[in-house]
Amino acid sequence: MAELRITDVRKAYDRIQALSGVDLTVRSGTLVAVLGPSGAGKTTLLRCIAGFETPDAGEIRIDGRRVATRGASVPPERRRIAVVPQEGALFPHLSVLGNVTYGLGRSARRAGRAATVLELVGLAGFEGRMPHHLSGGQQQRVAVARALAPHPPVVLLDEPFNALDAALRAELRRDVRQALRADGATAVLVTHDQAEALSVAEEIAVMRDGRIVQSGPPELLYREPADPWVAGFV
Ligand code: ATP
To answer: Does this complex have an ipTM over 0.90?
Structure first.
């Protein structure tokens, strides 16, 4: 767990300005939801944090260490940031245990850590199952367990519940939130779903046209929505 600080990050693809100066701080051990409509720049922001893209300007710091600045970037493998994608994150030929321990090297504590994170996501006892024998929701739980396993400084979740039906989403949201909290993870969850952001996050950052236009606890967005897109749903 670590503090994530993003300052004035900009990124363009040809003539499309995907990020127009993003400022965002995620305090150590908290979960922030980046909420915005399609095309707001959410995925581009995650890709810059993970190191898959290099910002054109601005900087990204993790616990004070600068990992990205104008045109220069620490490679993704040296940032050790975990990403939970929308779906399909698991290695199909590896068991649940194999998936969860994949990034843990040969540490003697890997079995204990795998048991801890599987318990956190409600899948104790599922170690030997193969991914194709799990429901979509269970697969996403394994993906979260795998992300948490190596104690990454930051966990990024990109619309992680999108492929699931409504009832399952609500349950999974609650459990994933609890798992992230219990493990003390610093996490950024991207979503276009207002209800999801309001229910899952300690803080919400509303993103529009490549900028964070408002951020704060969910109550603030209820009370004083600064953006018409937010005012429309609270
Ligand atoms: P969604 O919720 O639909 O995934 P988003 O908020 O994640 O949207 P991004 O995917 O970050 O938004 O896209 C922001 C803008 O940048 C969009 O206009 C998009 O078309 C553009 N864009 C993103 N990636 C690329 C790319 N590789 N090449 C060109 N344009 C891109």
So the answer is: yes
